[in-house]
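Worked example

This section walks through a single chain of length 132. The input is the sequence exactly as stored; nothing has been trimmed or padded.
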Amino acid sequence: MKYPVHIEKTPINEFVLKIIDLPGCETTGLSVDECLQNLEKIAESHLTILCEYGEKIPSAKTIDYHMNTLNTGIWAILDIDIVPYLGKSQKINVTLPELLIKQIDDRVSKSSEHKTRSGFIASVCLKELAKG
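Given that input, the structure is written out below as C-alpha cells.
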C-alpha cells in the first residue's frame, strides 16, 4: 500500500516525517533519506502490533486528501507491503475462467511486484477493498 508521508523541515534544519494514516508513525533526523528508512521500520513495527492484536490495517488516503488539512511541507510516498500483516494465510478454492488464470500468470511472470498468483489476487482485492 502506498502511504503518503508528510515532510517538514524544522527551524534547526532537522526533518520531521509522518505517515498521517498510521498514527504514531513519525521520525526526525538530519536527512530525508535517513528518516524514510527509519519511518519504514517504524511503520512495519506498528503494523506488526496491529496484526498481533487483530486490528484492521488502516487504508492509505491520497496526498490530495491530506493536503486539505495539511497545506505546508512536502509529500513523499512510502510503499509498504501490508500482506504479511493481514494474518495467517489460509488455503481456499477459487474457480476462475481458464483465460483469466492465464492472464494472471502472464502478469505475475513479468512483474517484480507480484511473486505468485495468490499474491497478485490478494493485492488486487486489497486495492478494491480500499475503495470502500
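What to look for: The chain has four helices and four strands.
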